[in-house]
Amino acid sequence: xxxxxxxxxxxxxxxxxxxxxxxxxxxxxxxxxxxxxxxxxxxxxxxxxxxxxxxxxxxxxxxxxxxxxxxxxxxxxxxxxxxxxxxxxxxxxxxxxxxxxxxxxxxxxxxxxxxxxxxxxxxxxxxxxxxxxxxxxxxxxxxxxxxxxxxxxxxxxxxxxxxxxxxxxxxxxxxxxxxxxxxxxxxxxxxxxxxxxxxxxxxxxxxxxxxxxxxxxxxxxxxxxxxxxxxxxxxxxxxxxxxxxxxxxxxxxxxxxxxxxxxxxxxxxxxxxxxxxxxxxxxxxxxxxxxxxxxxxxxxxxxxxxxxxxxxxxxxxxxxxxxxxxxxxxxxxxxxxxxxxxxxxxxxxxxxxxxxxxxx
Length: 360
Fold this sequence. Notes:
With about 350 residues, the protein is mainly alpha-helical. Helix 8 packs antiparallel against helix 9 (about 235-245), helix 8 packs across helix 10 (about 250-260) and helix 11 (about 265-280) packs across helix 12. It has a domain at about 1-60. It has helices spanning about 1-10, 25-35, 40-50, 55-60, 65-95, 135-150, 180-200, 210-230, 235-245, 250-260, 265-280, 290-305, 320-335, 340-360; strands at about 100-105, 120-130, 160, 170.
């Protein structure tokens, strides 16, 4: 696929395309980049190609490159604004007696160097200075947020932070949780053991981010949870590939060992296959790959796009029953190759769904 070739050029694993795209192919490339939420990254590849061969620019539709540059500049501006808001939010919680760490989002852009990442929501993990246990910290955090925003909505992992300009922001009691209660207990103990290292891992942007080893576990679990429930896009895969590139051999070995504790190695093998097939090795040569699960994962990524939002099988979902039936279909689909994860996720969603309906 010419789209994948361009992504490889952007990431430096390929020098040129197999052929100069036609105007129709350029439109297809743009649609692909939008679907996978990698507009800014793909433009980096285009600029490399244009610098090496003027014929590439001449092959584009009129105004195409300027349009794409405009989108990239908007993304850069949005990322700077998001980083500023993340810093201000972190400082606000610090002053209120909380330790803070920015999860994924703008923090992941630190792996990208000069490449441009499409920014996402603000996800801030917080814990009171006086508390080390996540379960106890949850109530203290909820009480603080509700003292400022009484109508703020929350769930097991986070509570919404209602910015006046509606910037999506979530305050996390824990980075994530696993639907399997036995795995989740181990996962939460791990987060507690890593918390202070993450809160101390300050960046030049003015906020802390998880350590690389912590991110090796957290980002993969975040990907798995979204894939099982809805879908993921290539932006998630690129994030993880660039993180793995930045790890030393000993750090990669440590992450792989930790993934085994949290039942993540099966999913990791599929992700590593996708990285190897689509993006180049990505620093994962010493991790095993699972072709069968990797091909399944890749096909779902290409069909559904970012968070599964572009899945043509989804159809219109106008009510609770239609949304629930789609989730059931996704669960059955995932159960073929990820049976344990899909089973526990289904039970959790069923419990949450019934609880919400009863509350109403």
